[in-house]
Amino acid sequence: xxxLPSSHIRLILAAVVSAVLLTRVGAEGxxxxxxxxxxxxxxxxxNIGVSRDGGVTYQILGHVIRPIRGELKDIQDKEFxxxxxxxxxxxxxxxVNAIHFKVGQKAHATIFSIxxxxxxxxxxxxxDVSYFHIKSSxxxxxxxxxxLFGEESPYVGDRLxxxxxxxxxxYPVGRAPVLGDVLSIENRGPESDVERVEFENCFxxxxxxxxxxxxxxxxxxxxxxVTGVGRFAGSKYAGVGEIRANHPxxxxxxxxxxxxxxxxxxxxxxxASEPDLNYxxxxxxxxxxxxxxxxxxxxxxxxxxxxxxxxxxQGKVEVRLDAGPWQLIPEAVGLQETALLHVSHLRILVx
Length: 351
Hints:
Blueprint: H1 6-27, E1 36-41, E2 47-51, E3 59-66, E4 73-74, E5 90-95, E6 98-105, E7 109-115, E8 137-140, E9 159-164, E10 167-170, E11 182-187, E12 194-200, E13 206-211, E14 217-224, E15 242-247, E16 250-254, E17 263-268, H2 269-272, E18 286-290, E19 316-321, E20 326-328, E21 343-349
Parallel strand pairs: 7-8, 17-18
Antiparallel strand pairs: 1-2, 1-11, 2-3, 3-8, 4-7, 5-6, 5-15, 6-7, 9-10, 9-11, 12-13, 12-21, 13-14, 14-18, 15-16, 16-17, 19-20, 19-21
């Protein structure tokens, strides 16, 4: 009987261990069951899947019906300028009607998007979108408000990765997705133990976050209360009291039933003060919020309101009318500037 030299045995063992780690950690994810991973194959018919076991197995959510072919979008004035406050290489907006990723920063952010099936045959003038760019989008066969755009959606701030040579790497800054790329979004759940956020809907009202443990903490103040609802694009793909979208400059809440339009938005003050958004401070359908003190940082892109906690159609939104008991936010469709006049408190329950 012959034996391999010990040095050869060590090399073989090292190769086996390396292969196992590459399969479980590199090619398929972290291997950590706490990690939910979304995987998108950027090719015609490419799978879109979600893993709840850290990338070991995937459930198919849908398929790519038109991939990106090397296009990005440089945001211009009057477009999605709130993306400037998002993190590079991460989800910068999550909504029932789109997911946006920030991969660069010039005068404004550089992004690309994933779209639901409804938007394959529309143009940039389509009224049901708040931001849309055709060439920098991956189109899917997943209906708006479902799957990737609903219960399986990522959070703002979730990291984006690119599969290369069998492992996941941080998505390269300034790189446009090309045909055949495999993209991955890694989600480890909400950024903290916040279970709900409550707003006193009055000038100077407190914004308080409540967690599973510890005492409530004040995370901001209401600078302008909301008293009405408006025609916000995409709310037709959400129900009454559901989150329509979240990004570094907005929480959009639907007040309308499915297939109808109506809702309100919560916007941080610095973003609301941009020249192209001066109407936000003067209209009743926006709640404008700011830090609890002038010495604290601005709220744009900050947790828990504008990163890491709210996903489309998850959780629910409740109100108190004239300081009464909590109830689901009232149904309201279209533009109604006094529909929420009696709302004294509003709260968002985290999924």
